[in-house]
Amino acid sequence: MSDLELAVSRSKRLERRLRDGLAAQGKGLHELTSSVERRLPADTVRKLRFVATVRNKLVHDMDVRKLDDRKRFVLACDQIERDIDDVAGPGHRDSWRTTFLVVGVIAALIAIGMGIAIWMMVSSGVELEWSFG
Fold it and tell me: What's this model's pTM, rounded to 2 decimal places?
């Protein structure tokens, strides 16, 4: 993955986390950060500004082609994600996955329950009449 791809993809992940986890408002990482900076530790806000600035330079400055310190950038992104998760609390990440899991479990339980009910009815001598259409 190129430095540009890394900067853009990690910035998008941070933007999504800010929106989903903290209900941040705005168009870019700087605006999103500004909308929730009072809720975040000062160090996290500094790291978000760093990531946003580095990403913007890579995208918009024709003379910048790579990250000066790729490891520092990745570590900052990782720490920001953990900090946002800590502030947002449990349940904000991957909520659509959780929803699908819960719906799947409920559907499976309903199917199992219906199967048991039909089996019990048939084993007790109840004749079932199936009609489709």
Answer: 0.67
